[in-house]
Amino acid sequence: MPPAGSFQAASSVLPVGTPPGGPAPAGTVDRWSATVQQGWDIAGNANGGYLLAIAARAMGASLGRTDPITVTAHYLSPGKPGPVTVEVEVAKQGRMFGTATATLASAERPLLRVIGTFGTLGGTPTAELVDVEPAAMPPPDRCIPIEPTDTFPPPFMGRVELRLHPEDAAFSLGTPSGRPLMRGWFRLRHDEPVDTIALLCAADAFPPTVFNANLPVAWTPTVELTAHVRARPEPGWLRCRFATHFVTGGFLEEDGEIWDESGRLVAQSRQLALLPRT
């Protein structure tokens, strides 16, 4: 059993009915139960990456695959603390990968729908080409810790540990940098290891980039989030960079890069978010 209060416990799932007997074949529909835990929220609504992690736990369990390779979630309704179900339909079981769709729902309504391909990461790559360096940042002890308060930041920040680049943390003092950019360090509290499911949470853990853009916006609701997981992270801090280049048509994108302490790219993300109407 994962420790109470841990990310693994907060994102755990249980089978509804007979537990699956190994990887489910294509066409199988499994049902899982979970609980959206208190404290993983932003203004009363569960963090989107955390909800995606719950759905991904169920999908990986149905597929019998350890790691999400690519997942795309469309957000339908805000998630409140309480019981939820995840219905997983296995679309394909291949030699290397399995693919499934999932719907995470409360008793009242569906909250998100996900399609994902899962496999087992590891081994030696046949070739590599990386022409982008990890974001240049001071070490974690010289960055700005984000701790929860009664107003800002939200309770979710007490469940993870964020240290923001000093230039990008200035928005909290009313002096945004003018660039829609968020850089910083991420890890789970109490030295809990970050698995590939937790990378999905990390992809949605930072304050919105537009907080630094000198625009009259607050929280930006997620419409869709896609994450690509490249490798299992080494223990320690994750170096993260999220940037926006287009705020137009009532939407914005956030492109993310997540690197582990060995300097290896472990995940990428792209999120489409809505600009609330004034």
Please explain how this structure is put together.
By secondary structure, the protein is mainly beta. It has two domains: 7-119, Thiol Ester Dehydrase, Chain A (Roll); 140-274, Acyl-CoA thioesterase, double hotdog domain (Porin, Beta Barrel). 10% of the residues lie in helices and 37% in strands. It has helices spanning 7-10, 48-63, 196-202, and strands at residues 14-15, 29-36, 41-42, 45-46, 67-75, 82-93, 98-105, 110-119, 144-146, 160-164, 181-188, 222-229, 238-243, 247-248, 251-259, 265-274. Strands 1, 2, 5, 6, 7, 8, 9, 10, 11, 12, 13, 14, 15 and 16 form a 14-stranded antiparallel β-sheet that branches. Strands 3-4 form a two-stranded antiparallel ribbon. A hairpin with a 4-residue loop joins strand 6 and strand 7 (98-105). Helix 2 packs antiparallel against helix 3. It is globular, with a radius of gyration of 18 Å.
